């Protein structure tokens, strides 16, 4: 995974960075790669969702995440197979988060995420998803992608350590009749939290932003945090 870097920051920028690291309304960012071949246009085809790991099948937690995927597929025009009905499509999903790795950084060159200096910005494309949440498609955040900094931005030599977790969601769609693969998708994110109940819903939303996407394209998708009521 690439790294997101804080360069030498002034006091005001350092304070803003501290707030971001504290998890205050931090956008969720995921790298999403999708591949497809002959995925049928949504015209009410039925689907069934299975766990890629048989040990998860039938689990309550898996069922919650499967419902999220089902909701997204339904929104795009597919439908869950009725009881006793043979589904047209079989959707297999797998998810997880690693045990994390410790990262030690210092400033200047303060590096609290996974980054690269001065890479600029993509053009933001804002779309609205399920529940009215806003997404920014292919956007580089100035804090998380080194948009600030450079010579003369302070002289801090602090050393800090933290744990970074990598989470992922794999999704496959097969034609039930012959088992042929129609779609493959992988979403991956890095965070300082390993809570699957928070991570998987965001990974699902990232996966279905602009679904099914352009085959073979890898994009970074930013999911804006929910607005406070």
Question: What would your notes on this structure say?
Answer:
By secondary structure, this protein is of the alpha+beta class. The chain has one domain (11-223): Double Stranded RNA Binding Domain, CATH 3.30.160. 17% of the residues lie in helices and 33% in strands. It is built from three helices and ten strands, in the order αββαβββββββαβ. Strands 1, 2, 3, 4, 5, 6, 7, 8, 9 and 10 form a ten-stranded mixed beta sheet that branches. Helix 2 packs parallel to helix 3. It is elongated and about 60 Å long. The two termini are 35 Å apart. Residues 1-24, 109-124 and 139-156 have low confidence and may be disordered.
Shape descriptor = elongated
Overall radius of gyration: 20 Å
Helix/strand class: alpha+beta
| Total number of distinct structural domains | 1
At CATH level 2, the architecture is: 2-Layer Sandwich
Can you write the helix and strand succession as a string? HEEHEEEEEEEHE
Mean pLDDT across every amino acid position: 76
Distance between the termini: 35 Å
Low-confidence segments: 1-24, 109-124, 139-156
E-strand count: 10
Q: How are the SSEs placed, and which strands pair?
A:
Blueprint: H1 11-21, E1 28-36, E2 46-51, H2 60-75, E3 79-80, E4 89-97, E5 101-106, E6 125-128, E7 134-137, E8 159-175, E9 181-191, H3 196-207, E10 217-223
Parallel strand pairs: 2-3, 2-4
Antiparallel strand pairs: 1-9, 1-10, 4-8, 5-8, 6-7, 7-10, 8-9
Helix pairs in contact: 2-3
